Task: structure prediction
Amino acid sequence: HKSPAVTEPTAQVYERLYTEADVIALAKMAWGEALVTKSDTEMAATMWCALNRFDSGDPYYRNCKTIEAIVLQRGAFAGYSADNPLDDHLVWLARDVLDRWNAERYGETDVGRTLPEDYLFFHGDGKHNHFRKDYIHDGLYWDWSLDSPYEN
Result:
């Protein structure tokens, strides 16, 4: 599976604010949560959801000091399993999302998010994930109105 040509999020080089363990955790989570979608945009959105939780300041996540800890938090991402395959394309996508997030942390805007920063939850229907701001299913879901840096 060839990775699509994607515009780099930045020409600026920043100190990396994530680890290889974070990359692996996001890739394995997306494999279980979103591979069925066959959409880089939707798989990236599950990763952005984890990053949104990490950045949220919500006391529920206060003990999560790393992105990996957010993904591994008990009950957080049902599709995550340490036994999920480490897919090369998802590793590439996780690095791409993390590089975009990293640039955003250093103040860049329009980095190529596929999910706004206030969306912290989602559920799947077997074909797609539906992202929401609140834990409760209130019927208000992300409308995919951001331009995606990916082909789909």
User: Anything to note?
Assistant: The mean pLDDT is 92. The first helix runs from residue 20 to 34. The chain has four helices and two strands.
